[in-house]
Amino acid sequence: MENVIKDPKLAEKGKKRIEWARRHMPVLQKIREEYAAERPLEGVRVVACLHVTVETANLLSTLTAGGAEIAVAGSNPLSTQDDVAAALAEDGMRVYAFHGENDQEYYDCINRALEIRPHVTLDDGADTIATIHRDRPDLAAEILGGCEETTTGVIRLRALADAGKLLYPVIAVNDAETKMMFDNRYGTGQSTIHGIMNATNFLFAGKTVVVGGYGWCGRGLATRARGMGANVIVVEVEPRKALEAAMDGFRVMSMTAAAPLGDLFVTVTGNVSVIREEHVELMKDQAIVANSGHFNVEIDIPALEEMASGVSEVQENVLEYKMADGRRIYLLAEGRLINLAAAYGHPPEVMDMSFANQALSVRYIAENGRRLDRKVYSVPSEIDKRVAALKLAAMGIEIESLTPEQDKYLHSWETGT
């Protein structure tokens, strides 16, 4: 089936950028060399519904080195980098992704990718798996398993599994410690600020930034915003996370209390309607609202549109909503992922670990999928530990080893006071 991309002429630019990222992804390259020698994915068909970025390109080239046949769709209408899509298509992959897709085009691309009848699915948000379960359950019999990259997708898949409706096993790559502790915290923290600054040239120093959510992504964003000189308020519903934020030195309050104080609001919860009409009514003139959670539902955009007397695009990725009382509220990147819509997404150094987990999990599924139950699995601990060890080695860091005496002590009960 013919590729659906923006412009094949962009391929050369994309290849240069992919190569630059590759130099900063040593763990994935180590796995790529191993796969090229062993070909563990020979004949395995993979549908990847991921953000089409330079880092993703290096994951996919690792899988093809192992023998996999790949079809790619974007996992967000605004996150596809068109030069990367062109480069992947020129390298022989089936690519159905372009920046600026509407909803119909987005799902058309996913369905085109599914025409290869995959053995393994890779998701960032679970839209491929949802499409299979909703529209293409006939494909499930051939599928050995899947991988899910992000918190939002894992939430959806666990709900599907709890309902007894999950049609094949899925590994929650998001929950690997070498993914969420680094990608979610350091990647989201840095790339979200990058996207906001690209879209607005916002000065963080001295401003009040409200962070909705204090999971790993919220922790990273709050810490980085404070490092830029912002006064940070955290809004959280889970008491233990709220307590942690308070102990970390942040002000913690409800969104209603924070709404009149914030200059910038960023949601990173994985939930719906975190910022609602009653909050917008309290915001100051020229407050900026952005989202770095996976879907564009964290901000109640329909309510914002209903409240506005007029909407205009004042610059790229910035929509101005004029309120009846004259206040102006600015929404960034249509409420979609600001770090990918207005920036490059996570740096390759952290995606190196995330996608190493993906690459090793695909092999695990190919070898073990038929023996797994239809549920959501954690990344096997041996994979998570191997990724950490490879990353340390790439960084030139040598760690301590247990002595025989220490190992015995940790595995015995006899020694006391």
Please tell me about this protein's structure.
Its EC number is 3.13.1.9. It is an enzyme of class 3 (hydrolase). By secondary structure, the chain is of the alpha/beta class. It folds into two domains: 221 residues, Rossmann fold; 156 residues, NAD(P)-binding Rossmann-like Domain (Rossmann fold, 3-Layer(aba) Sandwich), CATH 3.40.50.720. The chain has 17 helices and 15 strands. The strands form two sheets. An eight-stranded mixed sheet has the order 9-8-7-10-11-14-13-12. Strands 3-2-1-4-5-6-15 form a seven-stranded parallel sheet, with helices on both faces. The longest helix is centred in the middle third of the chain and has 24 residues. The mean pLDDT is 97.
Question: How many individual β-strands?
Answer: 15
**Contiguous runs where pLDDT drops below 50 for at least 5 residues:** none
Shape: globular
Fill in the CATH topology of the largest domain.
Answer: Rossmann fold
Rg, please?
22 Å
Name of the level-1 CATH class of the largest domain:
Alpha Beta
Describe the sheet with the most strands: 8 strands, mixed
CATH superfamily of the largest domain: Adenosylhomocysteinase-like
Helix content: 40-55%
What percentage of amino acids are in beta strands? Answer: 15-25%
Architecture of the largest domain, CATH level 2?
A: 3-Layer(aba) Sandwich
Task: Give me the number of helical elements.
Answer: 17
Mean pLDDT: 97
From the N-terminal CA to the C-terminal CA, the straight-line distance is: 71 Å
Q: What topology, given as strand order, has the largest sheet? A: 9-8-7-10-11-14-13-12
Helix/sheet category: alpha/beta
Q: How many discrete domains?
A: 2
- Assembly annotation: single chain
